[in-house]
Amino acid sequence: MKKIVLICSLLSVSIFYAQEEKEEPKDGWTKTGTISLLFSQSAFNEEWTGGGTSNYAANLNGTYDFNYRKGALTWDNRIMAEYGITKTKEQKFARKTNDRLELNSILGKQIKETNWYYSYFLNFKTQFSSGYTYFEDMDGEEQRIETTKFMSPGYIQTGPGFLWKKSDNLKVNFSPATARFIIVDNAFTSVPGYVDGDYFGLDQGESVRFEVGASVNAYAKFELMKNVSVENILNLYANYLEDPQNVDIDYTLNLLMSVNKYITANFTLQAIYDDNAVKGFQIREALGVGVTYGF
């Protein structure tokens, strides 16, 4: 509960700051994107006495926004792609540190001359490559078992609702009738001894789980100080058909610090609660310095 309060507090502070920003709406397309590469590497020879393990890590992030407006009609779209790996000398396998592919799309029709819109949204989320659990066999050899992969799981949410939009950098969409599809490879739900609901809430042999519920999607981005910007992304979902009190939470905080046009430092914190996946919060954080290109 404390973590939920903290996430909501961070978003509230972000909205307070972002409200200072004013944008005059313009018709036509607005397109922006960034690509950043963070890389680190350490190497030690056999004579090095201070301890340490040779390793490398790389993380590639990309975002692309393409928004359209014509009169009272708006159509906002964002693609987010992230992938990271790390490898140490003692490990047999490289391991993922980040893996995300997400599309958000909201179509809105302005209600008179207000910040409110009738809306229809689509959200799609999955990952690029397989995820594993790692263990050592009887001989001490590192082994792994595949637990997830591309489109296993895959999430699709869509539905009508209401959008409050101050600007492209400050908006909240509420959909009281959201259809949600959780898609998996049924090879994971067909293993001997499988217990219904164990794999992302699906029953034995199933590959698609259908839910109906309510969702809230909020986005707030603002400049904290010169060359330092903060981006907040919050997704909430409650399933009417099963345990509606267990709200799924997906919150991401991105802190971008620009050294110059190409060199940046990035900090990312992501907190996920989905009791169909894990009975607790999933926390991911990443910090690095790398090269960023905007277009």
TrEMBL record:
The signal peptide stretch is 1-18
Output the InterPro entries linked to this UniProt entry. Answer: DUF3078 (IPR021428)
Q: Which UniProt keywords apply?
A: Signal
This one is known as DUF3078 domain-containing protein
| Origin species | Jejudonia soesokkakensis
